[in-house]
Amino acid sequence: MKATSEQSIGKSTFFGLGSFQFLSFMRRGIFYSFMYIYLFSLLGNVTTTAGLGTFTMLASAVGQNLLWGRISDRYRLRSKLIVVGTLIAGFAYIIVFLVHRSLLDAGRNVDAGLAIIFGLSLLEFFWSMSDLGWAALLTDITITRTRGGLVGAFNFLASVGRMSGVLIAGFLYSGGAGFEDGTIFYVVVVMLFVSTSIMWQASKSIDRQTRLARNPQRESQKAMPTSNRKKRIQSSNEKTLFWFLVSLTIVVLGAASINQIFLFFLQLKGGLAASDVEVSLIVAAWTVGGMTASVAFGKLSDRIGRVKVILGGLILTAIIPILYGFVANVGLMATIYGLNGLSFMTIRTVGFAFAGDIIPEHKRGRLLSRYNTVMALSWGPAGFLIGGPFADFQTEILKIPTRDAYVNAFLVSSLLVFLGIALFFVKIRREKQG
């Protein structure tokens, strides 16, 4: 009998994990949609502002690669890592806000901005156990022939949650008051505690399923020596994963190098001059595009192959930044940014399924931590190392108008993505052939 992916994990488990994913991304939409704009108002520098994503990413990478991935593989802790990480994050947000608020009251705006950056970075070290636990858990409970569809279903729920959060953020931000008075912080904290409760309940059914899956016959099979053929397959898969992550690193650095710049461009008087609500609508369009990709392309990759679908997403990712400088109205920008969301979520959904297909079970925690690290480059390092310095150099040293400097950054972004595509085509596409 052919089981569906949802049936393989049970309806109650699917509902619990889906609810957790929905709330997780709604929270991110609420908190991060305007965070960079708010930080820029305090720090006044693109490069420094991009430090938020840079330092949180580094903290996440250190935690996952040196600690949580190893713990996950050794003790097979998946859902418990998610629960503990989410709970710690809830309390940490409260502490970060209280420190931030005290510095604002003292008139130390720059220090207040830096407090958010370093506070959230410390938080991310512990929170990354939740990210790693989720990636490993999702790979554990899915099978190759339906993995793309199930990952797409969860990413669809994530996109719906994120879009809801972005729209809410457009009203809560209120020119920065939502962060200054703590409204956004406390809304997020409540959501984190609710998410913790949901995952705790879901973990009970997951643990039961895991125990049933670990029968003596399966454990004895795991203990048997690995055949030479299987060793060769694993070695080949790990080599493929290596080149996939290298090409993906170049793509993510290129595409994400303009994430913060794009938000500034939207509200720039010489750019789109969009209002807060219009910005939230444009960002929400990105999420609508991501929803479409999650539903359609995850299942499509199950049918025609991961590599073909990933390549299509990569090409679209390279073309879109070139278009930003030619857009003169909010509606058209929303449409183009929606296509950006479609391309990114295609790569994210199908790329995760591809990695899950080739990573051996006993190394999932450690190798998925590397995949998560590459995807986390989109948080800020690209803007901190590439986009921010490039934009600041043009405006502060070369005295190029801000709008033109941002458009130049968009072109560099596209070039970098094309370089990543070339490597992907040579090292992955030709070997796998879809």
Report on the architecture of this protein.
This protein is mainly α and 434 residues long. The chain has 19 helices and no strands. It has helices at 5-9, 11-32, 35-43, 46-49, 51-75, 79-105, 109-140, 147-172, 177-180, 183-213, 216-223, 228-256, 259-267, 276-304, 306-324, 330-358, 364-376, 381-397, 402-432. Helix 2 (11-32) packs antiparallel against helix 10 (183-213), helix 5 (51-75) runs antiparallel to helix 18 and helix 15 runs antiparallel to helix 19 (402-432). The chain is globular and about 65 Å long. Residues 1-7 and 214-224 have low confidence and may be disordered.
Brief characterization of the structure:
With 434 residues, the protein is mainly α. The chain has helices at 5-9, 11-32, 35-43, 46-49, 51-75, 79-105, 109-140, 147-172, 177-180, 183-213, 216-223, 228-256, 259-267, 276-304, 306-324, 330-358, 364-376, 381-397, 402-432. The chain has one domain (21-210, 238-428): Up-down Bundle (Growth Hormone, Chain: A), CATH 1.20.1250.20.
